[in-house]
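Quick log. Single chain, no ligands specified.
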Amino acid sequence: MTFLLAEDSRPARNLIKNYLGELNLGHYLHFFEAESAEIAYDMVKKHHVDFVLVDWNLATSMTGLDLLKEIRKIEKFKELPIVMVTSETDKISVIDALKYGANDFIAKPIIQKQFKEKILRIIVGLK
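-> predicted structure:
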C-alpha cells in the first residue's frame, strides 16, 4: 500500500509513518512525502497512491483543504481515501473538509489509538 503524506513537519511525517508501520498492513508499505500541497498534487498525479494524509496548514500558498479540493476535481481520484490530519478542529473546518471530500479527520496532537482506528476503518472499507 502506498501512502502520500502531505505534511510540512518532518517529525510529524515520521510519527505518521511509524503509526502506519504498526498497522501490519503487509510487507509492502511505501511512502511518498511532500512538504507542500503543490508537490503533493504533482505526486498524486504522477504516481500510484492508495491513500493520502494531508495537513491542513501547509506552509505554502496552497492549503491542505485546497489540495483536497484539487484532487477531488479529478475523476479518477473521486474515491481515493484522503484524511485531513490537523490542529484545525473547529466544527466549520471539520464540516468543510468532509464537504469537499475528506474521508475523515484526525486532530493534532495525534492520538495513536484514534489514528489507527480511523485509518484501519477506511482501509477495511476499501476491500
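The chain has a mean pLDDT of 93.
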